[in-house]
Amino acid sequence: MKQLLICMGVLFTIACTKTSQAPRGLTNGNANGKPVTESRIITSFPKGRVVAYFFRSDHDWNSHLSSIDLTKITDVNIAFINPNANGNFANENWTALGSLIQTLHNQSRRVYFSIGGGNPPASLATYISAANRSTLISNIVYFTTYLGFDGIDIDLENDLITADTARYAGFINDLKVAMTANYKDVNVALAKWEAADYFISSATLNKFNLINIMSYDSTGPWNPGAPGQHSSYTLAVNDFQFFLSRGVPAGKLFMGVPFYGYAFGSSLTQTGYSYSDIVTTYPGAENRDTVNIPGGGIIYYNGIPTIQSKVDYATSHGAGGISIWEIQQDVVSTDSRSLLTTIYNKLQ
Fold first, then answer.
1. 179 close to 151: Cβ distance less than 8 angstroms
2. How far is it, in rounded angstroms, from Cα 147 to Cα 170?
3. Is the Cα dihedral 198, 211, 83, 60 positive or negative?
4. Is 263 helix (H, G, I), strand (E, B) or coil?
5. 67-73 contacts: CB < 8 A, separation 24 or more?
6. Could you tell me where the DSSP H helices lie in 6-116?
7. Which is nearest to 207 in space by CA: 158, 162, 245, 170?
8. Environment class of 325 (CB within 10 Å of its CB; exposed 0-12, middle 13-18, buried 19+)
9. Are strands 272-274 and 260-264 parallel, antiparallel or unpaired?
10. Strand order of the sheet with strand 272-274?
């Protein structure tokens, strides 16, 4: 791409150091400058969108895309793509990402990249600070616009929010200005506890185009003294109502559901299970939220009835849709036990 981008109200060109990040021959995915999200409105989901997180620690999303039924989702969050120690994305395979984005756009799916996660690079705290954030934001805008992402999903967690609330608010404000100038969305993943008003203001919450509510992980293997359901229906309802009470419109809220479970017990060798593993190993598990492990222990997860109830609540209260962590943990969508198909059917 050889065009000017507007970032923070300042014109900059690809003649800067960011030029080395982009492979030759790769064209800008949004060359006409129009709002790409609005050009791909999907009409087959009348009751809400389905946001699917697509996580690959090896960053080989292309090889695994065929395992996902794109007809049953509207948005894909590519997780995680974090800046390197220099605050740019030069370490990523831009050609492969461009191909991935084009494939998704050809099927009228929005595609975002998620930054942060549970194990972000240490340098991220430095680059969201007031002294350094302009570098990161410039690189985010360039990366997003050059490749044609529809925007970014901010998954900053824990200390990246709570240790310096002014730092977080400033980063979100400046990023929103820069991304909006380039017709790009700024979405977020948040848990209720880290979105309390003493951490994030209502003004900051309302800068996001949508909020993926992380209504899961209320307990887990890190807290063996508190066994139980980590993603109950009650938790999802309370979280949704909390964000409404903070002044966020219901249409911006996406109820997060887990496609995995946690096991509790005194002598377990495995504590985390995908939904696929659970229902494959324990016949009938799709209709329950717990299974007993032979020899001792219980796995807590969400089966079909709970997922149906959550979707019903979200749609009846005007939510923007459902957010899934993580899409590859389901059985294939043609299987009657599929949680993705359960969600899709409820949204028709």
1. yes
2. 26
3. positive
4. strand
5. 67/328, 67/332, 68/327, 68/328, 69/332, 69/333, 69/340, 69/341, 70/104, 70/107, 70/109, 71/107, 72/333, 72/340, 72/341, 72/343, 72/344, 73/109, 73/324, 73/327, 73/340
6. 61-64, 94-106
7. 170
8. buried
9. antiparallel
10. 272-274, 260-264, 298-300, 290-292
113 alpha carbon, distance to own chain's centre: 8
pLDDT tens, position by position, 181-198: 999 999 999 999 999 999
Token output for 214? 């992380």
* Token duo for residue 146: 């050059």
For residues 301 and 194, give the distance between their C-alpha atoms in angstroms, rounded to a whole number: 23
> Which residues, other chains included, contact 30 with Cβ-Cβ below 8 Å and sequence gap of 6+?
36, 145, 148, 182, 183
Closest CA to 194 of 160, 222, 170: 160
Residue 328, classified by CB atoms within 10 Å of its CB into exposed (0-12), middle (13-18) or buried (19+), is middle
User: What pLDDT, in 10s, does the model give residues 267-292?
Assistant: 899 999 999 999 999 999 999 999 99
Q: Which helix (H) or strand (E) holds 273?
A: strand 272-274
Alpha helices in the chain (DSSP H): 61-64, 94-106, 123-127, 133-147, 159-162, 165-181, 202-205, 233-245, 275-281, 304-316, 339-346
Q: Are 273 and 280 in contact (CB under 8 A)?
A: no
Decide if 110 contacts 103 (C-beta within 8 A): no
- Ramachandran bin of 25, using left for φ above 0, alpha for ψ from -120 to 50, beta for the remaining angles: left
Residue 113's SS3 state is strand
Strands 10-12 and 5-7: antiparallel
Average pLDDT over residues 306-314: 98
Q: What is the pTM of this model?
A: 0.90
Tell me the domain boundaries of the chain: 5-10+46-259+302-346
Residue keyed to tokens 């938790």: 235
Tell whether domain 5-10+46-259+302-346 is in CATH 3.30.200.20. no
Which pLDDT belongs to residue 19?
A: 35
Q: How far apart are CA 33 and CA 11, in angstroms?
A: 15
User: pLDDT of 31-66, one tens digit each?
Assistant: 444 444 554 566 678 899 999 999 999 999 999 999
